[in-house]
Design goal:
The chain has about 190 residues and is of the alpha+beta class. The protein is built from two helices and seven strands. The longest helix has about 55 residues, at about 10-65.
């Protein structure tokens, strides 16, 4: 058998170069993974916010369409002075059912986990739905809601929602994505 002349193994320089290349490739792979994971979470949140916004608007519009059902001479609905709450009056089984949609601020002491990490001025509100005097939280991260009377039997509902976390890739609006939805509702029972 033939003997190899330079059978000494790897030099220290070759090992250090291999280690440095492995480190650079590992760091690049981790950065890529981290970026993709953040983008996935951001896209999921955007999808959730868009879906929730459309569903909230749909439910408010559905309730508003019932305004005046079996009410008689009573007003079928009432919009607050500032246009930020809607009271709908209708009756199915009870003599008079009332549904009210309105916004409330977060309690910073009790609900700090919901609003932590959001920039100043980008703190959302909570949308409540009150049915016959019993209020319950209906939606989070609602920036604004407005109700406008367009004609005797048409109201316009505008809803603005936002994401719950800052998107580092979005430079405008302090990294907060917001979406506005509008729907005109024809009241059937007027």
């Amino acid at each position: 058998m033939k003997k190899l002349k330079n059978n000494h193994g790897y030099s220290m320089l070759e090992l250090l170069i291999a280690l440095a290349l492995t480190g650079v490739i590992s760091i690049a792979g981790y950065r890529f993974y981290e970026t993709m994971a953040n983008q996935t979470v951001t896209q999921e949140e955007i999808s959730d916010v868009q879906l929730n916004g459309r569903n909230i608007l749909y439910e408010i519009a559905k309730t508003a369409r019932l305004a005046g059902y079996k009410v008689g001479a009573h007003d079928p609905y009432e919009i607050s002075t500032y246009g930020d709450s809607l009271s709908v009056y209708y009756s199915l089984d009870n003599p008079m059912d009332t549904v009210i949609f309105y916004l409330e601020d977060y309690d910073e002491d009790l609900e700090a986990s919901f609003i932590s990490g959001l920039p100043e001025g980008k703190i959302p509100k909570k949308l409540f739905k009150e049915v016959n005097g019993t209020a319950s939280l209906y939606a989070d991260y609602v920036t604004a809601v407005s109700f406008d009377t367009l004609s005797a039997n048409v109201i316009e509902i505008t809803l603005q929602v936002q994401t719950s976390r800052v998107d580092q890739t979005l430079e405008r609006a302090d990294g907060i994505r917001s979406y506005t939805y509008t729907e005109r509702v024809t009241l059937r029972n007027l």
